[in-house]
Amino acid sequence: MTYESALNKIHSLLTFGSRPGLDRMKRLLAEMGNPQDSLKYIHVAGTNGKGSVCAMLSSALVAAGYKTGLFISPYITDFRERIQINNVPVSQSDIVNAVEETFPLIEKLQKDDVIITEFEYVNALEFYIHSKAKCDIVVLETGMGGLLDCTNVIKSPLCSVITTIGLDHTAVLGDTIEEIAGQKCGIIKENSLAVTSAQDMSALEVIETTARKLRVPLAKSSNVDLTVISETLEGSTFEYNGETIKINLAGDHQIENAKTALATLEILHYNDLISISPSQIALGFLRAKNPARLELMSKNPVVIIDGAHNPNGIQALKNASEKFLNNIRKIGILGMMSDKDIDTSIKLLSKTLDKVITVPIDNPRAISPQALAEKCKACFDDVTAFDDVQKAFDYAYSEAESTNSSVIVCGSLYLAGEIRPYILQKLK
């Protein structure tokens, strides 16, 4: 089997589940010998910040000498980004071997009318690969939810982490912050620890109540003591526990994500579940990467890719652009999924972007550039729809060069994944 044929088998499965629940995942993992039960986890759920928190945690644990597995979603440019060991995507042969050994189980279950989805299978591959590699700890990012997310088949993790909660995936998770928080809190289990980022008061109340009922100690990012030294588009520097720490992730929201990761490492260290020093944390955080999150691709002209795709993420992008690009004209390249809160996101960007170029995304859930342009015209005077992402970027980049403007690509991680390789090649 080639790597391409292995990917084709993975992608041949249903993208979304036909019914809720964890029964299918448990059935598959039982057929695989329950590889998830041999691993220790830091389980991370939330609406925004999961990927960055996971990246910092994984990188810090690697710096402390732990063989660390990482599972994230979605990937940006390479499928193997989803399953990593020591911050390196697993090899193509690892994927091929795992698919060869486990895909017959998918076909066996199909004959019993048990239909496994793509996300479930990829998660099962993660458990399988990390178990075979004998990872010391796995940093495990949920998909959209928590309680019924297929990652939640694990037993009590070392720690459950809830990053910032906002209104996203409301059709599945609920219409209110409280309902969504309840779903996210489904990863908190007895005989474990928990951490939360700064939250809306209604979300925090749900988290605190859940932890109290389960008698799980809860640490808060707000209790982490750090002093910010400097912030630029290239990242932030702060002092923590006698160490000067640099993160190559820009924006106030990334400082909050860093505090969440630090709160997690602190509570794990305090409870003798890991051994890690401030200098190891500093090294790990310096090495942490999370592409397409306010990622500076070029300084002159400024080109930024940001995967922000919901109002919370767009607000973080807006705050950062106002802080770092306050006096610079901003050209936005915008593509979004039709099931997102497009109208709120556009309104948030209305006082940030001076010009909008709408583009297609190669995804059946994407809104067309023409339909998105029509929505944008309610908030922007200068809107153009393009049918080709690369031509749109060439046009925006050329205008930015000639008018001393900046280019901000945003609206979807899928868009970021499509355009990022082209931008890297063009700006070599």
What labels describe this entry?
8-stranded mixed sheet; 42% helix; alpha/beta; 17 strands; 428 residues; globular
Ordered list of secondary-structure elements with their pairings:
Blueprint: H1 3-11, H2 23-31, E1 41-45, H3 50-63, E2 68-71, E3 83-85, E4 88-89, H4 92-111, H5 118-132, E5 137-141, E6 159-162, H6 170-173, H7 177-184, E7 193-196, H8 201-214, E8 218-220, E9 226-232, E10 235-240, E11 243-247, H9 252-270, H10 278-287, E12 295-299, E13 302-305, H11 311-324, E14 329-334, H12 342-349, E15 355-358, H13 369-376, E16 383-385, H14 389-403, E17 405-410, H15 413-426
Helix pairs in contact: 1-4, 3-9, 3-10, 4-5, 7-8, 11-12
- The whole-number mean of residue pLDDT values reads 95
The N- to C-terminal Cα distance equals: 34 Å
Query: What share of the residues lie within helices?
Result: 40-55%
Query: Per DSSP, what share of the residues sits in E-state strands of 2 or more residues?
Result: 15-25%
Uncertain spans: none
User: What is the CA-atom radius of gyration, in angstroms?
Assistant: 21 Å
Apparent shape: globular
Tally of DSSP helical segments:
15
Strand order of the largest sheet: 4-3-2-5-1-6-7-8
- Total number of β-strand segments? 17
The helix/strand class is: alpha/beta
What's the story with the biggest beta sheet?
8 strands, mixed
Structure description:
The mean pLDDT is 95. It is built from 15 helices and 17 strands. β15, α13 (369-376) and β16 (383-385) form a beta-alpha-beta unit. It is globular. α7 (177-184) packs parallel to α8. It has helices at 3-11, 23-31, 50-63, 92-111, 118-132, 170-173, 177-184, 201-214, 252-270, 278-287, 311-324, 342-349, 369-376, 389-403, 413-426; strands at residues 41-45, 68-71, 83-85, 88-89, 137-141, 159-162, 193-196, 218-220, 226-232, 235-240, 243-247, 295-299, 302-305, 329-334, 355-358, 383-385, 405-410. The chain has an eight-stranded mixed sheet with strand order 4-3-2-5-1-6-7-8, with helices on both faces. The chain has a six-stranded mixed sheet with strand order 12-13-17-14-15-16. A three-stranded antiparallel sheet has the order 9-10-11. By secondary structure, the protein is α/β, with parallel strands linked by helices.
